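Workshop exercise sheet. Pairs work together: one partner reads the sequence aloud, the other fills in the structure field after running the prediction. Swap roles for the next sheet.
Pair: D.N. / O.F.
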Amino acid sequence: ALLAASAMLALPTQAADNGVYFGGSVGYSQLSEDVLDLDATGFKVIGGWRFVDWLAVEANYVDFGSMSDEIDSEELQLDADGYSVSALAFLPVGPVDLFARVGAFMWDASIRTDFDRLSDDGTDLVWGGGVQFRVWSLSIRGEYERYDLDGADTDMFSLGATWTFF
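Structure field:
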């Protein structure tokens, strides 16, 4: 009876819940470039379509938060955000998925100092990986992503959730 009950509890988490999903995540973002080392709390909004157990296409809105630092007694503030489109490859292991992503990130950034304001935009590579735990249509995920903003490496570590609708 114990074996049968255990098997019944495990059934909903064994098959990937494929289809259209939406969600969000919050995390730590960090930009490192030459003399800059900025960090902030960022977030992302997630939308995707997992059409087979091992492959999905995902679009995200990413906001890295407001990063600030003081350099040579001058305040510097960086705001960056953008949209990404990525392919995700999954390795399902029971109720857990290991995944990797690669795609394009269309970004916009502005840098403010005490005396000046600069802005830039572009399209660059995004890649990363993570792990998610699935229960029915709910997935809880932890993820690392690397964004290239014209040579300025920006990392994001995030925790989030998605819900598959159909």
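Discussion prompt: The chain has a mean pLDDT of 89. What would you look at next?
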